[in-house]
Specification:
By secondary structure, the protein is α+β, with helices and mostly antiparallel strands. Helix content is about 40%, strand content about 20%. The longest helix has about 35 residues. The structure holds copper (II) ion. Copper (II) ion binds next to loops.
Length: about 350
């Protein structure tokens, strides 16, 4: 018997370290954690999570205590044992108790859960002064339209802090799902249907998000960012979108290319862009023509980016509804790809 002991210790240590590692993964600063209080809606979910966690911990301790007690109390005692254990059949009192306790636990969990589901499903009212944004999912990028303000963005959801954002979600093709784990979600975008979801960020900053519903070959690249601004920053952003300062920023263009829809279809060697639907753009600036139809100059590149099918009818590159600022940045970046 003694020779088994080290193995048990090793196994116990291994389980302990796995547990510690798993707990480490719960850090609320991880970029994709749902255990985050960066938004009001995640806070609400977290409050139910806490209740469930405590209930589970109590049940765990009680059951393990009973188990350990039983193992010790009814263990095989070689010196006193004479024959088999006494067979027992049923114990009505015990069975009633262990039916009622779980029922009570489930009710305790169900009440706040249902309350919070209802709260999260409810559309913000006028009194909340929500910012309404339409979300149109495409293979493989998200388009955000601020209809009242006349602004459109791709893969960048700019929102103000401490204000409810009312997202009206649909899809252009297949089912997608918008999910920014630290802020909340996820709700499906379904063609021909408007789904609703609200968010209220409590912190400014940048938050990662992605499509959470397998939607085709570009699914893994269907990422987006939520940029939460303070009140003044949000106004400044809107202002810049509506009246972009001329002259593009190549670094911003590159960031947009790699994180936006472009990388889903195009590859650029030496970067993470590895799409295969469209041409490889590693040396785009050295090409004589754009899409083989017009000379490769700045004006034509702007026209191409603004609306490819208008330059080359039937082309496989869709109109991505880029904003003037995005086009400026992309032109600066693409022209640096010699
Ligand atoms: Cu998708």
């Amino acid at each position: 018997m003694v020779h088994r002991l080290p193995w048990r210790i090793v196994a116990a240590l291994a389980m302990l370290s796995v547990g510690v590692l798993l707990l480490g993964a719960c850090s609320s600063s991880a970029p994709q954690t749902t255990i985050s209080d960066a938004s009001v809606n995640n806070d609400r979910i977290w409050s139910v999570y806490t209740i469930i966690w405590i209930a589970a911990a109590v049940v765990f301790v009680a059951v393990e205590a009973l188990l350990v007690y039983t193992i010790i109390k009814f263990r095989n005692k070689p010196r006193t044992a004479h024959g088999r254990p006494v067979p027992v059949h049923g114990n009505t009192k015990l069975e009633i108790v262990w039916t009622i306790i779980p029922a009570v636990v489930l009710v305790v969990i169900a009440i706040p859960t249902l309350q919070i589901i209802a709260e999260l499903e409810k559309r913000p009212s006028e009194a909340d002064n929500p910012l309404e944004i339409s979300v149109i999912a495409h293979q493989f990028f998200f388009e955000f339209r601020y209809e009242d303000q006349g602004i459109r963005t791709t893969n960048e959801l700019h929102i103000p802090v401490n204000r409810k954002v009312d997202l009206v979600m649909t899809s252009n093709d297949v089912i997608h799902s918008l999910w920014a784990p630290r802020l909340g979600g996820k709700v499906d975008s379904i063609p021909g249907r408007n789904n609703h979801m609200w968010l209220e960020a409590k912190e400014t900053g940048e938050f990662d998000g992605q499509c959470a519903e397998f939607c085709g070959v570009g699914h893994a690249n269907m990422r987006f960012k939520v940029i939460v601004h303070d009140e003044a920053g949000f106004m400044a952003w809107m202002d810049e979108e509506l009246n972009p300062t001329p002259g593009g920023d190549a670094a911003a263009g590159e960031a947009f290319f790699l994180n936006g829809p472009c990388a889903g279809c195009h590859a650029i060697d030496g970067t993470t862009a590895a799409g295969t639907v469209g041409p490889n753009l590693t040396h785009f600036a050295s090409l004589p023509q754009i899409a083989g139809v017009v000379p490769n100059d700045e004006q034509n590149l702007r026209a191409w980016l603004a609306n490819p099918p208008a330059v080359k009818p039937g082309t496989g590159m869709p109109n991505l509804n880029l904003t003037p600022a995005q086009i400026d940045n992309l032109v600066a970046y693409l022209q640096s790809l010699k």
